[in-house]
Amino acid sequence: MIKLSQPQIPDSAIEKVGEILRSGQLVHGEECNLFEKELAKFLGAKHALVVSNGTAALHLALLALNIGPGDAVIVPDFTFTATANIVEAVGAKAIIVDVDKTSYNLDPEKLQACIEDWQEPETLKAIMPVLEFGNPTHLNAYKEIAQQHGLFMIEDAACALGASEQGTMVGTAAEFGCFSFHPRKTLTTGEGGALVTNDSALYEKAALLRSHGMQRTENGVEFKCIGLNYRLTNFQGAIGRAILPELNNWIVKRRELANQYTELLAPLVQAGELTLPTIVEGHSVQTYMTVLADSYTRSNVIAQLRDKQVESNLGAQSMSSLGLFDHSYNSQQQYPEGTRLYTHGLALPLHEGMSHEDISKVVNALNEVLGHA
Length: 373
What we know:
By secondary structure, this protein is an alpha/beta fold.
């Protein structure tokens, strides 16, 4: 079976994890502290906080910015549900805006229109753009729009570690950038995530919230605020540290494989069977998602590919299609792009452990399934 994704864990990380497990220092410790420093340096950011998962990073960002009941946060229609869920979890409303069909990211024109036309009773506080599958497109446009309207910006960069747009590293353009280290991500620690900021005051607040509001002083532990437990374990920090130096090379490999897909799938595009993602400069290519023609039922294609030993899946969800965020504004809108990506998006296997022969096998299998063998 050619897997959709396969975590790559260096032997050095496995050995280090064994050392840490034997040491007994399992909770957040020196490996996590070093990982934070190295991650901040990699991104060119002032501060990084490693946390238990990407959703925790989003949660801390919202709490640090005092977003809660009576507020509204704009999210894209096409994303994993964590993006909108966590807005609702703090008591705010997730306001959905459609994406564009080529980048799969929040449509800047529709974002601008939502902000300018806003008449709902909630206070529009922030935008939370997702850099879907590692695509940095519109990152700087989002920043300009947020600044123009006096809104906070939280980058949901769960899939986009290592991506950049015109010299701006994803995760560093806003008040906060939030990353995930889930096994589907290029850098994984099993579960895990990180919160990045250039604002020292926000960093200090998020750091307190991450660990029970607890601060160690000369007089012992003091509790400064009500907080949570979103710490990463020490052995997860060691895994992250081992992978980080490999990340840029792995992204180069992913881009090579994605370009091969694009070349080999061109005949299917010409035949009108599917469309392909645009791999722009700075794309970190966490996922390669095609979009099937309307005539296909994706579940059937997935099943037939599985029979040919190729794993595939949907790309993400459409927030407007889930029935969970039926606020007044959302109910009045149409989401043609996000809905179609949800129903017809087909993610193909892609990871740095794949070979060019693997890509050819996937394309051959897809050609057979779509009747173009």
